[in-house]
Amino acid sequence: MGRSLVSPSGDCLKYYDEEKMIEIQKAFEAEVLKWKGVNSRPMMGCLCYFCNRKFIGFLVTDGIVLMKLSEKDQTSLKEKFGGKPFEMAGQTGRLWVTPLKGPNDVRPVMPFVRKRYEEVSSNPAKT
Q1: Residue 5: what pLDDT?
Q2: φ/ψ of residue 33, rounded to 5
Q3: Which of 34, 56, 84, 97, CA to CA, is 20 to 30 A from 91?
Q4: Could you tell me what percent of the chain has a pLDDT over 70?
């Protein structure tokens, strides 16, 4: 039924378990893929979402990582939902994984996703 998420190199997505996340993905995409200019594609072992070629965020197994939130929003997200730093290849960066355990966890984080979308959609990508 769903598409198999494979990276351009042909590897399965390392940080994203499609079977485990299918209901969360459906709930998330039911909203964000309606927004003008938003699309998704597998990249770097995750399922990434873009608006006009600018990163909004990406789904990982059991969570979502939102890009470039303000310090205030990032703090609010952490306080409301908890989570942990995102690790890739043994490195921990500034990115934060907000937990999503089921489709009902998607709606409460959508205001943060929408804020990021509005930021990138109001600043078109340079070509």
Answers
A1: 46
A2: -75, -5
A3: 56
A4: 87
Between CA 115 and CA 125 the distance in angstroms is: 17
- pTM, entire model: 0.83
Strands (E), 10-83: 38-43, 46-51, 54-60, 63-66
**C-alpha dist (Å) from residue 38 to 26, 51, 69, 70, 99:** 15, 4, 18, 21, 22
CA 52/CA 30 separation, integer angstroms: 18
Give the Cα separation of 54 and 81 in Å (integer): 25
Residues 6+ apart with CB under 8 A from 110: 31
Query: Do 55 and 67 contact (CB within 8 A), yes or no?
Result: yes
42 contacts 49 by C-beta, under 8 angstroms: no
